[in-house]
Amino acid sequence: MCSEAVLPPEGATASTFTQILADNLGHSDGGCTFIQEDGREHFMSWSEVSREALRRGRRMLRYGLRKGERVALVVPEEREFVLTFLGAVSVGVVPVPMYPPMSFGRFEAYREDAAGILRAAGARAVVMPRSLADLLAPLLQAVEGLRTVVLEEFFAGPLVGSAPQPEAILPEDVMFLQFTSGSTGTPKGVRVTHACVLANCAAVIGALRLRRGRDRGVSWLPMYHDMGLVGFVLAPLIARCPVSFLPTLRFARSPGLWLETVSRHRATVTFAPNFGLALAVEHTTAREAKRLDLSCLRVVGCGAEPNHPETLRAFAAHFAAAGLRPGALVPCYGMAEATLAISVGETAVPYALDVIQKEPYLTSGLARPAPAAEDPGSQVAFVPCGRPVAGHRILIVDDEGKPLPERHIGEVVFAGPSVAAGYHGDAEATRRSFTAHGLRTGDCGYLAEGVLHVTSRKKDLLIVNGRNHDPQTVEWAAAEVPGLRKGSIVAFTRPGRATEEVVIVAEFRGGDAATVARQVRGHIQTKLSLPVAEVLLLVPGQLPKTSSGKVRRGTTRQRYLQGALHGVAPRPS
Q1: Among 24, 218, 328, 363, which residue has the fewest nearby CB atoms (within 10 Å)?
Q2: What is the pLDDT of residue 304?
Q3: How many CA atoms lie within 13 A of 216 on its CB side?
Q4: Closest Cα to residue 428, out of 195, 186, 225?
């Protein structure tokens, strides 16, 4: 790590994040820039952020909230979210970030999900802007004992009168509850402690070689998600590296704004999931790309969902004309149960795909390197996700939990101080995932010379005629057929007469539905030698997704088997 990539002296000795906030009171040499919906920018120094957070924390105490009690945050605006979240943290109140309602079309599903999170968290109060108070009133009434805090009124004006003294906060205390996105099951509240946050942020700062006074971040990532919250709010507060926040909804409406903001603010670090990279390419013309100056970027981290080799290649090629460096793309892997990062690719070094033989991979779970002269059709390529972050380790284990050698595929287990303290109120799920040997991630992968390669979700594997197929590989192949919406495709199996049968459910972009379905089946048969029993095409917005935009395979399969999904045309025979 280069000499500038160090924590501040105060941060290096802090044992809780509350101490970080207190330490930052004396620093006005940088801070956060909040870009508003109308494009105006509001800058707050580290000192101003901490001072306002401490004020909000005292107001929560005066309201009657106490250390350890949970308060849900349904706060879409980035500045208000950051200040309210940190305010709760400053006095030991446990914030529960929640995603806001995205559209009226899915509002009933949102209310059901949100009510489940509020009950599971045991939230005592929910903070929201006035604009959502009336809309969410039926939800709040459905959760017994919940109090409503209207953001604009609660924190407006100076604090009048005294507030109780905050209780002492310890490293092992829960700092916040991070509810998982629910892509593979019911969302669970991850108990993230102060110690976990400090350990993971220190590891991220070191892995990315963040340099105070030289690095700057830009993020459009939602702050209710671990990558946006830990990666671009908490870690920069520790490292005191400035960050500019682009509203998530502005990115969703105009994905090209992301890299325009990077270029204008001269950012050196930014992150996105695989679908974010694809959207940036799709919504930035070659002429527009040439007008950008991305030579400032050291790190374009990519994680949160499987990285498609072609998406990464296309992103690098498309923005090379803007000065994007070949080694800027840094594939990563992480999850909320690990606070954030599990492994991070090497910075300033172009990643290299690991190309393996398809047959032993599918039939024996072995990742044998493919000979250079081998037919591409008999190969599979995986994006490396880097080495475990400093102070942590990764094991690959079999179904009995026994460690496997390198290039053997099994479940990824992560151990170290970043592993969270379990799931809130769910002892059985905690016992299954948080073991004495480390966190059982539920993801399959292998190590090659110490570098992690993630292959699939363990529970999502398609097992057909005794062969294992990764659903994302099938989905990526389907996305190559015109007429389907990329990022809105799900592959799973259904019971068949002789073996499991593959089904693809996808959102339809346009054209003749029967023709598109037939082309999808033919393309996957040709490319993957995998028969597809059915292709069901849905209208846009109908496919079940998580709050962070990931497809919900389990939910989609369940609704399909229940006959609850209806296609845009009669199902192809």
Answers
A1: 363
A2: 81
A3: 18
A4: 186
